[in-house]
UniProtKB/TrEMBL annotation, chain A:
One of its GO terms (molecular function) is DNA binding. It holds the Pfam family CENP-T_N. The lineage of its organism: Eukaryota, Metazoa, Chordata, Craniata, Vertebrata. Gene3D superfamilies: Histone, subunit A. Residues 379-399 have a biased composition (Basic and acidic residues). Residues 1-20, 32-71, 112-142, 199-218, 287-315, 333-355, 375-464 are annotated as: Disordered. Residues 50-61, 296-309 have a biased composition (Polar residues). This is Centromere protein T. Residues 112-125, 132-142, 400-413, 432-454 have a biased composition (Low complexity). It is found in: Chromosome, Centromere, Kinetochore; Nucleus. Component of the CENPA-NAC (nucleosome-associated) complex, a complex that plays a central role in assembly of kinetochore proteins, mitotic progression and chromosome segregation. The CENPA-NAC complex recruits the CENPA-CAD (nucleosome distal) complex and may be involved in incorporation of newly synthesized CENPA into centromeres. Part of a nucleosome-associated complex that binds specifically to histone H3-containing nucleosomes at the centromere, as opposed to nucleosomes containing CENPA.
UniProtKB/TrEMBL annotation, chain B:
It comes from Callorhinus ursinus. It comes from the Eukaryota. SUPFAM superfamilies: Histone-fold (SSF47113). Belongs to the TAF9 family. CENP-S/MHF1 subfamily. This is Centromere protein S. The gene is LOC112811558. Residues 110-141 are annotated as: Disordered.
Length: 568, 141
């Protein structure tokens, strides 16, 4: 009785969710609402229009249901329905429970006093809250049954959810976690998804689907323009000292980057500019070249580039491949353009360091940077090659220097060109040639005049400095003290090994009539080495030894939307 | 049972085939070693010759597999001189030798082709000249 009266009273006032729900509950049948509604739709349209049209964007089912409800006598007592339905756990019963227990509060208005509500309603109300703005009563169809049922059945779980929701809210908003109802704050909070209304902390939408709650933040493509601008700024701001200066300084900031255990995580993006600033190695020309390289690169590099990009500054600085990796990885770049920037790249391996050292030297030459930029872009293509790439480039250098200017089989040779300043004169032409077979002659012609600037001393340094990282690794894994002479021998051997490697890669690429080294070349090399055979394929090795991020880049995988990444 | 026997038989056949091949290789290696020994004045011991022949045999297998891989890498189905050159690139002298030989072969081939072309041209001209002469005669008078 009282309910009916209350209902009628409510009906007179502005229809809120509560009132509508009440109406629904009063008028609807206890049976499943979906089946018989169509018959009654026409009769009750007029009645329903005013309240429903104003706020409700309710789904059709709801409308139909409401209309059918309207067909019933409005004065029916609600309690008749409520009493019988508790055991059934239908949407209707759930809604009824909500109405019975939830406080009379408007969704829109912030509440000064929010009473703690029994948890089942919390779940329900939270959801209602989440759909604020529209009095969508999807609830009956979708979540209320499940959540409310869960809430009723598992109070423990509810508490967990609450805690989770609180935690999530705290995380998302950076607010201190509190178990108190935060009805006040919710209305003023910006994020509508974080429902902090009603009573006890509500679950944000994401928490309602725990599987999605911890989804890592989506990586946004690096803004190439801004990135390049940053590069230019830093390069302009910073002088370009000699290599020796760069290396010690560079190592310091990159160390911090190295520590990051999630190389591909987004936060690094923000740090990268800072890293750049801290790295004095970037020269002005580098930025320019990077830009040029970027423009060139966009075509050539495929999705492979992604992990390579921004390693450049770190590479230059860090003798350590790790640093390179960290930085390179820090840019979850999707843009090949970005990757183009670095000559530096990819070399996640230490070999890259060697190249880097040489590159640094070459980079000191403005034009050389162009080549490195192109090289870097080229290098990016070889996501697999890592050091082999650079090695191949190294290998190519002698060849290139012999005069075969534009027939570099592998783009790495470009890189090599930059690497060995003593070969720079012949090198620039070859280096220019490779990148996606684009005519880089204007760049190369400009290179020779500047190639001579690095003196003989810097030539020696970068030659071997890149391998120091590997030598240190070697001494670490040897687990016993090693003589310096032995370490030097090791370094020599590594040098030869990488040279051979890159030679082979280059030759393989040429054998297939290509100018760029591709993963197929690397696979052939590994076959010859015996690492890859009929039992063990390249992908197996990738899965075994490389971290997940590289695996994603190297092994094609089908994603939603009929897309394969990386594209073949 | 039969299959096993057949399989076993095949294996045996293969095995005996291999043994014969090995024996042939061993013989050739032995002859070469004798030559080198007489040149250098230092004889070869039997185990040494056996080791060399075994090594040669295994290396031949490796070479064959590599050549096949190279050809497939270049998207071909026949092994080419290019593949062989790629194989021999490690040792400079060998590479030089092979390239010289290939150049000789290429030259020889081109010469042969030139000869063939000349012959064809001669035949054509002989055929053409009378035809032209005939045509001229017809057009003229």
């Amino acid at each position: 009785m009282a309910e009916a009266m209350a209902e009628s009273y409510n009906r007179d006032s502005e229809p809120t969710t509560r009132t509508l729900l009440r109406r629904v509950l009063d008028t609807a049948d206890t049976l499943t609402p979906r089946r018989r509604r169509s018959a009654r739709v026409s009769a009750q349209k007029a009645l329903l229009e005013t309240p429903s049209s104003r706020r409700l964007s309710s789904p059709t089912k709801m409308n139909v249901r409401r209309r059918s409800h309207r067909a019933r006598s409005i004065g029916r007592l609600a309690h008749v329905h409520t009493s019988g339905n508790l055991e059934e756990q239908t949407p209707r019963t759930l809604l009824k429970n909500i109405l019975l227990t939830a406080p009379e509060s408007s969704v829109m208005m912030p509440e000064s006093v929010v009473k703690p509500v029994p948890t089942p309603q919390v779940v329900q109300s939270s959801r209602r809250e989440s759909s604020r703005g529209s009095l969508e009563l999807q609830l009956p169809e979708l979540e209320p049954p499940t959540t409310l049922a869960l809430g009723l059945l598992a109070p423990g779980r509810r508490k967990q959810r609450q805690r989770l929701s609180v935690f999530q809210q705290g995380m998302d908003q950076g607010l201190p976690l509190s178990q108190e109802p935060r009805g006040n704050g919710s209305a003023s909070s910006l994020t509508s998804s974080l429902n902090l209304t009603f009573a006890t902390p509500l679950q944000p939408q994401s928490a309602q689907r725990p599987g999605l709650a911890r989804r890592p933040p989506t990586r946004r493509a690096v803004d190439v323009g801004a990135f390049l601008q940053d590069l230019r700024d830093t390069s302009l701001a910073l002088a370009s000292p000699g290599d020796s200066l760069r290396t010690p300084v560079a190592t310091l900031p990159t160390d911090t980057v190295l520590e990051d255990t999630q190389p591909f995580s987004q936060p690094l993006i923000g740090r990268s500019p800072s890293v750049y600033h801290s790295l004095p190695c970037l020269s002005h020309t580098e930025a320019e070249d990077a830009k040029r390289a970027v423009s060139h690169r966009t075509q050539s590099s495929g999705p492979r580039l992604q992990n390579h990009n921004p390693g450049k500054p770190t590479q230059l600085l860090a003798g350590k491949a790790k640093k390179v990796d960290a930085l390179a990885v820090s840019f979850p770049n999707n843009s090949s353009a970005v990757s183009g920037e670095d000559g530096v790249e990819p070399l996640q391996d230490g070999v890259g360091e060697e190249a880097e050292e040489r590159m640094e030297e070459s980079l000191s030459v403005s034009k050389v940077v162009a080549t490195t930029g192109t090289q870097g872009s080229v290098r990016m293509e070889k996501s697999k090659g890592h050091r082999e790439m650079t090695e191949a480039a190294e290998a190519k250098e002698p060849e290139g220097s012999s005069g075969a200017s534009l027939e570099l089989a592998s783009s790495t040779t470009e890189f090599l060109q930059a690497r060995r300043p003593q070969f720079l004169e012949p090198a620039p032409p070859p280096s220019a040639a490779v990148l996606s077979s684009e005519p880089l002659e204007p760049l190369s012609t400009r290179l020779p005049p500047r190639a001579r600037t690095p003196g003989p001393r810097p030539r020696q340094d970068p030659h071997k400095t890149g391998l120091s990282h590997y030598v240190k690794l070697f001494s670490f894994y040897a687990k016993m003290p090693m003589e310096k002479a032995a370490l030097e021998m090791v370094e020599k051997c590594l040098d030869k090994y990488f040279q051979h490697l890159c030679d082979d890669l280059e030759v393989f690429a040429a054998h297939a009539g290509r100018k760029t080294v591709r993963p197929e070349d690397l696979e052939l090399l590994m076959r010859r080495q015996g690492l890859v055979n009929d039992q063990v394929s390249l992908h197996v090795l990738v899965e075994r030894h490389l971290p997940l991020e590289y695996r994603q880049l190297l092994i094609p995988c089908a994603f939603s939307g009929n897309s394969v990444f990386p594209a073949q | 049972m039969e299959e096993e026997e057949e399989g076993g038989g095949e294996e045996q056949q293969q095995f005996s085939y291999r043994q014969r091949l090995k024996a042939a290789v061993h013989y050739t290696v032995g002859c070469l070693c004798e030559e080198v020994a007489s040149d250098r004045g230092m004889p070869f011991s039997k185990p040494a010759i056996a080791a060399v022949s075994e090594l040669t045999f295994r290396q031949c297998e490796t070479f064959a597999k590599d050549l096949e891989m190279f050809a497939r890498h270049a998207k071909r189905s026949t092994i080419n001189t290019e593949d062989v050159k790629l194989l021999a690139r490690r040792s400079n002298s060998l590479l030089k030798y092979i390239t010289e030989k290939t150049e000789e072969l290429a030259q020889f081939n081109t010469e042969q082709k030139a000869k063939k072309k000349q012959k064809l041209e001669e035949d054509n001209t002989r055929a053409v000249v009378p035809a032209e002469a005939a045509a001229a005669r017809k057009d003229g008078p």
